[in-house]
Design brief:
351 residues, 12 helices, alpha/beta, two-stranded antiparallel sheet, TIM Barrel, 18% strand
């Protein structure tokens, strides 16, 4: 499944290859967090410790050629699984080993406690590259991670509705909605499937029936899909997520060959679009932001109890199998600052 050409490119980009079809890579925010320099938006919004997060994928292939993706055109595309199927336990063990190896260089830092904690992975972001939900044993892999008390966020591109229907419970499931209508979706996602729009709609139907925490991700590309908020709202209502993340496109990786720096919105522009979108979503409220990531978080109003937002994750309750595993997150609201005020900050292209 990994050709020599793709392998060479992945290694140059600091990926580590595990088995026949899986990869792991240290996120920039994991590195910053180990050094005591702050955490990513998942830490602020949901309580995930960035220095204990491992980003992996179980499948390099994807059914889209999204113009905003950092993947190069050497990366494989496929409508279905092709090739060997590695054992899920071996994938996890291999990824953990490579993660620890990649973190070894941080052992000499002053904050030795954070470094020690980073060697104990507590969260897996199944989103690194490709379409992880395609891996035929994804359910077994998720269940094995949970046995190890490692929580899971999984991102899928809404082109495999049956896989969404049959997916094992994850800690939080993400669905990418990259455009408000059929015409724009074809232009932005460049899908392999001819029935891509019907697949998106069916994915939203199954997504709405999921029992775990759910989030719809909007990747905002200035001059392309920051439009038609009413149409976005109709799709969001269909998927009925707990959360919406409105996140600006980042001018990184191979996307720079397809888009320009002008396509990357400032945080203020993401906030402005979010305020337009919320007008069509009466059941939601804008709750928080992560300025460096150019991300705005919406939450269902039902998660606000006694004036507090229960949008975080109580990991013990999750692993105990409790239906409600929410906890309070105190740092909420919009600051009024934007990326123009923080231009010296490194751009975030994580999950």
């Amino acid at each position: 499944m990994i050709t020599p050409e793709v392998k060479d490119e992945l290694l140059k980009q600091q990926y580590r290859i595990v088995g026949n079809h899986s990869v792991v890579k240290i996120c920039g925010w994991t590195k910053k967090s180990v050094k005591g320099e702050g955490g990513c938006y998942k830490q602020k919004f949901y309580g995930i410790n960035s220095h204990q997060c491992m980003q992996i994928s179980t499948c390099l292939s994807c059914a889209n050629r999204c113009v905003f993706c950092w993947r190069g055109y050497k990366a494989p595309v496929s409508k279905e699984w092709v090739g060997e199927i590695d054992d899920p336990v071996e994938i996890i063990e291999g990824c953990l080993k490579e993660q620890n190896s990649l973190l070894n260089g941080f052992g000499g830092l002053n904050n030795i406690e954070l470094y020690r904690e980073s060697k104990e992975v507590r969260h897996a972001a199944l989103s690194l590259t490709g379409e992880p939900i395609l891996y035929p044993q994804i359910n077994e892999l998720i269940e094995e991670l949970h046995k190890r008390k490692i929580s899971t966020f999984l991102v899928t591109n809404a082109q495999h509705p049956e896989h969404i229907k049959d997916l094992a419970k994850v800690t939080q499931l993400y669905l990418s909605v990259d455009a408000p209508n059929k015409k724009l979706l074809k232009e932005i996602d460049v899908p392999l499937f001819t029935d891509y729009w019907e697949r998106l709609e069916k994915s939203l139907d199954y997504f709405a029936k999921r029992k775990e925490k759910t989030c719809i991700r909007l990747s905002m590309i200035k001059g392309m899909n920051m439009c038609n908020p009413k149409e976005y709202a109709e799709l969001i209502k269909k998927g009925d997520p707990d959360f919406i993340e409105c996140k600006g496109y980042m001018f990184v990786g191979s996307s720079r060959q397809r888009l320009s720096l002008e396509n990357m919105p400032y945080h203020e522009e993401v906030v402005e679009f979010s305020k337009e979108l919320i007008k069509y979503l009466p059941d939601y409220e804008i709750v928080s932001e992560h300025i460096v990531s150019r991300a705005v978080l919406f939450s269902k109003k039902t998660l606000k109890r006694d004036g507090k937002w229960f949008i975080g994750i109580d990991f013990e309750k999750f692993f105990e199998g409790k239906e409600d595993y929410s906890c309070v997150i105190k740092e909420v609201g919009l600051s009024g600052l934007g990326t123009r005020d923080k231009m010296n900050e490194k751009m975030d292209s994580s999950l």
